[in-house]
Amino acid sequence: MFNNGIWLNEPRHWSVTEGRLTVTTDPETDFWQQTHYGFCRDSGHFLGVSVNGDFTAQVHVQGDFKTLYDQAGLMVRVDERNWVKTGVEVSDGALMLGSVLTCGQSD
């Protein structure tokens, strides 16, 4: 599956071994659009695979989450202004589950 993917913002360090994708994120990368914070980001790492019709996706995430907003998960993306992501993220010193829906503006 990972061999069929196309990177958006390919990270400097990544590998696929025994069906497992390992990524070391580059600094200051994120996905975020038109929020009250006043900035837009489309610099996160995304390995996309095209699908047609209905589908089911599943991901197992394991990481060295330490710093505020360190995160990893699953994203369904149409373009930079239309996507949804879900996963784990460091917030207020704890690892939390979360999701973001973006239709022109991230919630």
Automatic annotation (TrEMBL):
InterPro entries: ConA-like_dom_sf (IPR013320), DUF1349 (IPR009784)
Gene3D superfamilies: 2.60.120.200
Source organism superkingdom: Bacteria
Name of the featured protein: DUF1349 domain-containing protein
Species per Swiss-Prot/TrEMBL record: Pseudomonas syringae
Organism taxonomic ancestry: Bacteria, Pseudomonadati, Pseudomonadota, Gammaproteobacteria, Pseudomonadales
